[in-house]
Write a structure and sequence with these properties.
Order of helices and strands of chain B: HHHHHHHH
Shape of chain A: elongated
Strand content of chain B: under 5%
Number of strands of chain A: 13
Distance between the termini of chain A: 34 Å
Number of helices of chain A: 10
Helix content of chain A: 25-40%
Number of helices of chain B: 8
CATH architecture of the largest domain in chain A: 3-Layer(aba) Sandwich
Strand order of the largest sheet of chain A: 5-6-7-3-8-9
Oligomer: heterodimer
Amino acid sequence: MNNSISVKNLTKKYSHFTLDNLSLEVPSGSVIGLVGANGAGKTTLIKLLLGIIKKDKGNIYIIDKEDIGIILDDAFLPELLKIDDINKIMKNIYQNWDETLFYQYLQRFNLTNNLLIKSLSKGMKKKLEIAVSLAHKPKLLILDEPTSGLDPIVRGEVLDIFREFMESDDHSILISSHITSDLESIADYIALLDQGKLIFKESITNIMDNYGIIHCTKEMFEKLKDNAVSYRKNKYDYEILIKNKKEIKKKYKEINIDKASIDEMMYLLVRGEK
Amino acid sequence: MKGLILKDLLILKNQMRNVLIVIIGFVILSIIMKNYFYIAFVIPFYIVMLMISTFSYDDLNNSNTYIVALPFSRKEIVKARYLLCLMSIITSFLIGLLISLIIPLLNEEMEFASTFASTSASIMGVILVISLLIPFFYKFGVQKGRVMLFIAIMSISLLIGIIISLFENSKLNIALFFNQLEQINFIILILIAIAIILFILYISYLISYKIYKNKEF
């Protein structure tokens, strides 16, 4: 399988933060969800991929920029432009820019008036950015917080569009988001960054099938300790992240294993002990 | 690259109403004051202001970051800015020419040659300012760049002041030097001036590219 993105031992040093020796692949046909706390390095990684900042060490392979659609967190064309202006500009930037497709997306988003970007609401602006990111028929989408600040209805619409995008076999998405429920519904893999390091990467199917969270007493914890991917001692109980749900279910029939949500997993992997 | 130039032009177009109001204001003012040189100086100056504003729009909307992520080389991005500058310089020359043709019709005391010469001189001055400004903007951003430019101009003036006073002390006559210049053919002088100024603009472009090449957003 070809990769849309392949990163090896990527390092970027800042005085206060280092993206450390990171390796990650985005195979064509897959959606990678990038998660992590604020300042974990998600945006730094995306900026490195797009050449907005320069790497210190490592290798980056990424497909041609002509074939990439981007949505950046809080960066777009100047807001003193109108919607039609964006079309004129992009037509002269992307070789594959499809004017009809652009206006189709806008129609779908109910953005039919030629307004100044400045006068658009946050959600409308995001929709415009999404239309722009798709109208040159990219093969890869790099999305930094594409759904932040959007209400659940619009978020649903936007996720539908990304799902449609993924109907082609050779398309892929790298998406960073704090809204992990969105990722659960769209991503194939979850990659967790913590303090500039990739500490976890797993397919959603594997997470759903094999990962689980157990809340238990100290005695039970001692028995399960060897199975823990990560655990945390709370005031009244222990919280354990496991990745062999079926096995444990068989062995300890009385145990209640919860579904591992990305939020809880993140919390345990970042803050828990091992 | 065309897309980038278009972006700046379209922003200016959307601001066109404001631009026109200001220009009409200048024209009315100079008619009332019966000072036609005023337009000749103000219009090129105003065009520089417009150039500066395209920089600040990019700063405000974080669009620097977005543009760098689009399929352009950094060289193209800098080149587009300088091409836009060249276009605005040519436009102001044409406007200057037009003004120099109209003014003698309004006022018999004025003649084409002197009006056009003073307009051209002010445009050349403007190009010098642009050549200085843009690298500073690329290095420091618009807000900080203005302050840094101010400091730079102050230091340069100080330096020139010191050099001139050294010359005066050594009893060399600068006025004599300029008088001798006048004797050279007027047209040759203008051509030399244009060549020097375009060369300065080119150097400015090279410096800007060097700064921008490794800039991070």
